[in-house]
Sequence to fold (484 residues):
Amino acid sequence: NQQKLEQMAESSPEISHAINKVFFTQFLLHTQLLEVRAYANQQGVILKGDIPIGISHDSVEAWVDPHLFNLDTQTGAPPDDFSISGQNWGFPTYNWKEMEKDDYQWWKKRFRKMADYFDVYRIDHILGFFRIWEIPMSSVQGLLGYFSPALPFSTDEIAYFGLYFDEYRMTNPYIHESFLYEIFGEYMQEVIGQFLRPIAWQRFELNENCNTQKKIKTLFVSDDAKSCCIRDGLYSLCNETLFIRDKREPHKYHPRITAQYSFSYRHLDDNSKTAFNRLYDHFFYQRHTAFWQEEAMKKLPPLISSTNMLVCGEDLGMVPESVPAVMKEMQILSLEIERMPKRPELQFNDLRYLPFLSVCTTSTHDMSPLRLWWKEDRWKTQRYYNETLQRLGIAPEDCATDICRQIIGNHLNSLSMLAIFPLQDWLSTDDRLKRPDPADERINVPANPRHYWRYRMHLTIEQLIASEEFNANIKNMIVASGRK
Fold:
């Protein structure tokens, strides 16, 4: 590949110019970032960078070192508060066994380059160093994924839990006429005639041209209501499985995540449901605890010790039981969000008891900012207003500036080492600077692949600098909290 590229550059002035332009642009960015860091440090400011968990299939990394990646898979996240269908980021997964051979030099070089520009860094989706959510290339959504590395079940182990394993029934989409109207409504008969093939009484399978989500996606180019209804319904039929065959050990199986919400599960008899639940709980909450801890402790210590930067980890989502202990041992700061507590019995985190080794924030790029969140669930907002903010009466319809100031002030007064807030939430404390419509402050909607990184600042840096009252209020809040 390298030789071919050099030959192309030598034979074509246009290609040579394009390559040199990228080199020069990267050189300018490098020198500018070095200058920014030096200036920031002189002013007593530290810079925090971000290590994304994934790389693109089309990236230079995948081109130069293809053996370090599983280019025939995709990665994402299992279902969580952000997306009930899981997330599919489209990145290849890492070939950790290959990376281990040279003591993870690819990652170390990545971390050391970050150290040229930043004093602190965040490991995006640190759970990926324990296990990653691997998704077949044939999928669009994330529900047919599985954890990798993992310990899938053999058929004998499945039987041990008391479940009769009907391989065809449980590993292929279970499609029964009784629930098709619930999915497709008035389009049910059209779907049966065009996309399904009968295989037994009231039982169907998907036609060859639409038996994967990727194939289904190519059949629908329009975004009209009917097309979206049928397309999304067909997607859901693909997900109607109870087990997923392991890619590397085809005779072993993963229980499908959140399978209890599927029609396939609903159609099991009560004894089979009980057995499946027992197997499912063991697989997702017990079986991998020590295994995933061992995986993380192989990777994280050599990577973190490769620089002197302070390390933060984004530990949201379906967090394995071993994660907090590993992060504490490695002194990696956790991410704490008031409205997303890690203890399921809590509605909201108590900011007074957050761990010191943590970053607390009001919102993330994947969440609705404060003012938009306030409008999403009136019952939750009312409870937050009375119990957390300790305010009496009915919660107002809008999250006014005084409420936003109180919320940010509470976070500043938490025990977390770092309190970092999105610009949108800072601007919510000033009526003259915030956007009129809170929905315009949203950065990313993980459940919607067409809504990502849309936010753009509606103010210039010069306008922010000139907003003396706003800046004075920020300074006063920070000084009052003792953080400066």
About this structure: Residues 44 and 71 are 43 Å apart (CA to CA). The first strand starts at residue 48 and ends at 51. The longest helix spans residues 13-42.
